[in-house]
Amino acid sequence: MKVDDTTYEVALRDGAKFSDGSDVTVDDVVFSFERVLDPANNSLYSQFLTFLDSVKAKDDATVTIKTKHPYSLVAERLSTVKIVPRAAVEADAKAFDMIPIGSGPYKMTDNSAASQTVVFERNDNYNGSHPALAKKMTWQVLADDTTRTNAITSSTVQAIDTVPATNLGAMTEPVSVSADKGFSLVFVMFNHQGAFADVKARQAIMYALDYEKICSTGMGTLATAATCFVQEDHPAYRKASTVYTYDVDKAKSLLAEAGADGLALSAQVRSQDQDLMVALQDAWSKIGVSCDVQVIDNGVWSESRKNGTLQVTLVTWSTLCFQGIEHMGSYFRSDRAAAKSSFYESTVFDALVDEARQTTDGDSAIANLAKQADKQLVRIDYACLPVCWPQMPYALKSDFKGLQVLVNPLFRKVTKG
């Protein structure tokens, strides 16, 4: 419940219990937030809670949350913190991290560390409004595209996600494939230090692409050419005033103006982005730009990005909150961009992000600010190159009934079977 623009009260669910049978208490809630915010724990989620001032127990069933300033995404950001039993964490933190305890409809019984299989079983202590519909779920960790495809076609599994475009032809009855729009964007990330410090060099790279052809070549039928950062069916969508068309002569001219003739690029990408990066490599060769494509492990890629050593890469970007301004701001606001190997800085963009985060004027005001930020990012500063909006392809066996797919950003559920 919102008390005022900077104060919220949250009531515990009556009778809520953790999967180990212990009661969920306000002390557990406060501890869970303190655990995430403690710098010593280096939590991934602390970056989403910078607006928080305090989290305190009001009484035995209510928590009071204070923010430093008005914030438009309080509920969405608070939900990133998972409430855990303080006693279990303090008794053995390492053991808890291996098999966490929560208060949701399922409990984890295998974390895949040894088996490469994550197993969830129904939490019989759960008393909320979304009870488990299956007694048990088994998720196999199959990072390799071929292995994942073989698993569904051989009936080893009932469903897979991230169906590779190159393997769509292998999906025949009794396997069906669906692809729904998500809230992701595939974009070329430029390191704004060095060759791409000049905006004309970034523009040249954009003019060198036939976006429809690139999407078809690199993504099969599983993507739509992007015209801005935020997807066209989102309230914050604003088609760019300048939509880049394939123009080799224009691209070469801009390279010359930037003093970047004979530009040589080094692109490091993850395996899932290889096909699309090779398509870009081929297109850029037509304007005299060479691009050495290296496929690296996800862990190496993440560390290189954090260290700022990636010159060019492909990013498939989604956020934990599907508001347009956060989709951009969580990657490109100046306090985040250096750790993404972008080094983009814009006081104008930052101000738009901050205003949208703090406004109390409602969704339409936030969407309008997001449109302005999108234009600043993509068509004034040319900070990145939006390539395509990918779909979310998944394959199901015909006997797998009742699956509900959560489709972002509006959380529309698509029921299969």
Describe this structure as you would to a colleague.
This protein is α+β, with helices and mostly antiparallel strands. 31% of the residues lie in helices and 24% in strands. The protein has helices at 26-37, 74-78, 86-91, 93-98, 145-153, 199-207, 211-219, 248-257, 274-285, 298-307, 324-332, 334-337, 347-358, 363-380, and strands spanning 2-4, 7-11, 52-59, 62-67, 106-111, 117-122, 136-140, 159-161, 175-181, 185-190, 223-225, 264-269, 290-295, 312-317, 384-397, 403-407, 412-416. Helix 7 runs antiparallel to helix 9, helix 11 (324-332) packs across helix 13 and helix 13 (347-358) runs antiparallel to helix 14 (363-380). It is globular. Mean pLDDT is 89; it is low at 409-417.
Helix fraction, binned, reads 25-40%
Strand percent estimate: 15-25%
Poorly predicted runs are 409-417
Distance between the termini: 38 Å
Radius of gyration: 23 Å
Largest sheet: 6 strands, antiparallel
Mean pLDDT value: 89
What structural class do helix, strand and pairing data support?
A: alpha+beta
How many helical elements?
14
Inertia-based shape: globular
Number of strands: 17
